[in-house]
Design goal:
Elements (H helix, E strand, L loop, with lengths): L1 H10 L7 H21 L17 H23 L6
Helix pairs in contact: 2-3
């Protein structure tokens, strides 16, 4: 009896996540990547010259917010339960 149940469970093996979970994961990765891209740059060619662009609104507020939203989406995608059919 136990052997039959184990074989049945192996035959019905499925993915851990649903299609919706993977969509949320991809969206979260896109937000994280976009945040890091927006945070990049702002340096100066000459180390003796200060470039105030490094403290722009985009690098200080927008990029970290996008990264945090992306991590939030990743957590939601992992914790979201499958729909019972």
């Amino acid at each position: 009896m136990g052997e039959q149940k184990r074989k049945k469970d192996q035959a019905e093996a499925s993915f851990v996540f649903d299609k919706a979970n993977y969509k949320y994961m991809i969206a979260g990765l896109a937000f994280i990547a976009l945040g890091f891209v927006l945070m990049a740059g702002g340096g100066s060619e000459d180390p003796q010259v200060f470039n105030p662009e490094i403290y722009s609104w985009r690098r200080i507020r927008l990029a970290p917010a996008l990264i945090l939203i992306g991590f939030g989406l990743e957590v939601y995608a992992i914790l979201k339960s499958k729909k019972k059919s």
